[in-house]
Amino acid sequence: MIEVGRQGAFSVNSVGVERRPFPLSFSVRQAAGMWVVTAGAAQAGELADLLATAANGSVAVVSLETNSYLDEDWQSLRPSLIAADLGVPCTVHPLGSWASGTYGLAEEILVLDRDQLPRLLDGTWAPYELTLIDVPTGATPEQLDELALVLGTTGIDEPLLGRLGDSSRFWFSGHDDCYLWLEARDSALPAAVLARLLTLLAGSAIAALTDRPSSCVPEPEPCLPERLMATAPHWIGALDTATEELVTIRMAALPDPWQLDVPIPQRADLTAVLDVRHGTWRITPPE
Q1: Potential cystine with 90: which of 54, 112, 192, 202 (Cβ 3.0-4.6 Å)?
Q2: Are 251 and 237 spatial neighbours (Cβ–Cβ below 8 Å)?
Q3: pTM above 0.90?
Q4: Is 65 helix (H, G, I), strand (E, B) or coil?
């Protein structure tokens, strides 16, 4: 069961001046032996447990920008100061001014035990830019310098993990507390992210129907997102009907990844249905 709050990504984001509900979007492809995902909408904290589970011992926070923690010049505090305020134990590896202005890098790297990631991303603050990559426990300063060099010299559309040997299992980049980019060595993590997005969208609908600050929502079994990924690489999902007992989501396959200027299809190629009472999900053909 996943606790979905009333202030989640699907609840606070909207599309266009009409403020239409934000859809679920998910695209997956393989490149250089890795699974590459672009998706929305999810706040980093809503995925923290999935990333922690997938991590190789530790997680490196290599970039972080937020309006929740600002200094006297209205600039984001250094990640280490944010972690200290939250009481999250970590080690700090300074990179220096050369990293300033480099996309996807801060002037320091935080390394924390993977179990501390949900504690860092605890929902009490919001990063609008966040880049994470898992590293082996006990990564040396030399290894972190090498990681920073690879991150700073990899093109935006160029796969990253393949340049790091076998040391990292995922690379995550979250933007505007909504969009995410992900590289993973194992298809299980992309499938888990798709399952979580379905749960968050259904949970946002249930939360809107009640006065409770949050609702506990069951996640689909892995076979459901795996079926969607095997059927088509690009999906968009929108709420169809929602009651406290049943939530249906229209899932439409697209020829390309969804963009904000692309109208949300009214058709459904498949329907994802959550039976709230029995705690089960199923995929059905459209009616």
Answers
A1: 112
A2: yes
A3: yes
A4: strand
Selected residue with higher pLDDT from 74 and 103: 74
Burial of 263 (0-12, 13-18, 19+ CB in 10 A): exposed
- How many whole angstroms separate alpha carbon 268 and alpha carbon 252? 5
Q: Judge whether 153 and 160 are in contact, CB under 8 Å.
A: no
Closest residue by Cα to residue 276 from 250, 246, 249 = 246
Distances (CA, A) of 85 to 4, 49, 78, 116, 249: 25, 21, 11, 14, 39
The number of C-alpha atoms within 13 Å of 82 and in the hemisphere containing its C-beta is 27
Q: In this predicted model, what pLDDT tens digit does every residue of 134-148 receive, in sequence order?
A: 999 999 999 998 899
Measure the CA–CA gap between 264 and 209, rounded to whole angstroms: 23
Residue 206, CB half-sphere, CA atoms under 13 Å: how many?
Answer: 26
Tokens at 241, concatenated: 């009907």
**Helix (H) or strand (E) run with residue 119 in it:** helix 117-120
Terminus-to-terminus CA distance in the chain, angstroms? Answer: 28
Q: In this structure, what are the phi and psi dihedrals at residue 144, rounded to the nearest 5 degrees?
A: -70, -35
Phi, psi of 47 (to 5 degrees): -120, 0
Element (H, E) at 218: none
Burial class (CB in 10 A: 0-12, 13-18, 19+), 21: middle
Q: 258 — phi, psi (to 5°)?
A: -70, 140
- pLDDT tens for 176-217 read 989 999 999 999 999 999 999 999 999 999 988 887 778 889
Rounded mean pLDDT of 94-110? 77
Q: 3 — phi, psi (to 5°)?
A: -85, 120
